[in-house]
Amino acid sequence: MKLSKQAVASLVVAVSVAGAAVAVVAAEAFHERHMAMEAVGDAMKPLGAIAKKQAPFDAAVVKANATTIADSLKKASALFPAGSGGGESRAKPEIWTDAAGFEKGMKDAHAAAVALQSVSDEAAFGPALGALGSTCKGCHDKYRLPKQ
Amino acid sequence: MKARSLVKLLAALVTLLVAGAVAFWLLTRPQPLPAAAIPTHQVDLRNGETLYHAGSCLACHRAPEGAPGADRGLPAGGTPFPTPVGVFYPQNLTPDAETGLGRWSEIDFVNAMRLGISPHRTHYFPAFPYASYRSMTMADLLDLRAYLMSLPAVSSPSREAAVPMVALARRGVGLWKRLAFRQPTFSPEPGRTPSWTRGAYLANAPGHCGECHTPKDWLMVADETRHMAGGAHPGGEGKVPSLRGLVPRKKYEDVDDLVLALQNGETLGYEDLSSGGMAAIQENLARLPESDVRAISEYLLSLR
Q1: Hey, are the CB atoms on A136 and B272 less than 8 Å from each other?
Q2: The domain containing residue A99 runs over which residues?
Q3: What total of structural domains would you count in chain A?
């Protein structure tokens, strides 16, 4: 059972490298999902402006932004590997302790964004945007920490 | 000679301890108002409902998912309220006789809201924000009580707080009140519009915004020199943002913008309003008459 000094040293190096790799993956996931979520936030702005009557209703603008939101949400939902919370991230541990609930929330949000893509008249726009907004809110309330 | 001085020392110590315990007992004695403090009053249920929403009572006093009353949005209480001090279980506010406010007299309700004293003459922990509610007018308190008594009754027994040495801690709250109640209660500022004054009252008294948005000192008393300047999150989840300078800091464009934000929250993309428990507050504020939401917004945007 005697291990040579070299073997111990290699083991230590291997474990550290693996640990560092996990940390890098987690940091990268955090960075990428943050960008995706920022894209969602940016795409919500022109839609909010229409809802607030600060901009005219334009089905093309709605479709383009709803598409960005749906795509970004799909991208982000795959970027929450275990251990990627903490530090600068506002992700709450509930994302991983209640993984099923989190996944459902992401799916609901994506579905609401897809539904918004095909809205062609102003009367249907408000309720569709409201539906999408409530899915954002439902998840943020449960799974996102306040700003630090 | 030596033994005698030891006895003397012991006697002095015991005297000091007894004196300390007596002083603690006297200083922490709950002193409720007598029933005669209730004026004659014409109940206004609609005003009561407005105050119920302004105080976001339901945000804390809701029933846990699946419990009786939860599906109907009734304030049956019991949802755990975790804080760094311990876990609190908010009271059932429905008029159930055994477990709710059914047997509470008007003065019981006023003593709870104004002085944080229960009908059993014990102190409430200040997780129940009576330090703010004590600024509410007597008429508003009576209307709020009448509104709560008009709700359907739900049976939901209270549960003692999970706090270390809970009985002693509860009594000790009496000392805390001596400090916290030294802060002045809300009073209107001269030269302000009626709408601003209404908003300031709603935000500070029933709305209790400062309970989270004003930082607390080391004795857990609100530091009013930094009114609404942001503080630690009561659930320990990072920080609660400052409400000062919301326009210069580009959080909101103007009063209209903040009105839309409070009425719609993230359904209109105002994403700052959905974290740390603010989403539930926003949903309650959205049920206020628009003039009141506007008044609150006008007041908040005046904070520099």
Answers
A1: no
A2: 5-143
A3: 1
Extents of the domains making up chain B: 35-180, 194-301
Angle CA(B270)–CA(B276)–CA(B277) in degrees, nearest 5? 85
Tokens representing B178? 């001596």
Residues of B in contact with A41 (CB under 8 A): 269, 271
DSSP, res A91: B
Work out the number of other CB atoms within 10 angstroms of the CB of residue A40. 23
* Chain segment B270-300, per-residue pLDDT in tens: 988 988 889 999 999 999 999 999 999 999 9
* ipTM for the complex shown: 0.76
How far apart (Å, rounded) are the C-alpha atoms in residues B185 and B162? 30
One-letter identity of residue B129: P
| CATH code of the domain covering residue A98 | 1.20.120.10
Encode pLDDT of A107-134 as tens digits.
999 999 999 999 999 999 999 999 999 9
CA–CA separation, B259 and B275 (whole Å): 18
Instruction: Give the count of beta carbons closer than 10 Å to the beta carbon of residue A42.
Output: 13
In the structure encoding, which two tokens stand for residue A116, read together? 């918004």
Residue A3 carries which side chain, given as an amino acid letter? Answer: L
Closest CA to B301 of B223, B248, B239, B264: B248
Q: Per-residue DSSP letters for B183-247? A: SPPP-PPTT--HHHHHHHHHHHTTS-THHHHS-B-TTS-B-GGGTTS-EE-TTSSSEEPP-TTTT
CB-CB neighbors (< 8 A) of B275 in chain A: 90, 140-141, 144-147
CA closest to B237 among chain A residues: A145
**Rg, chain A, Cα only:** 21
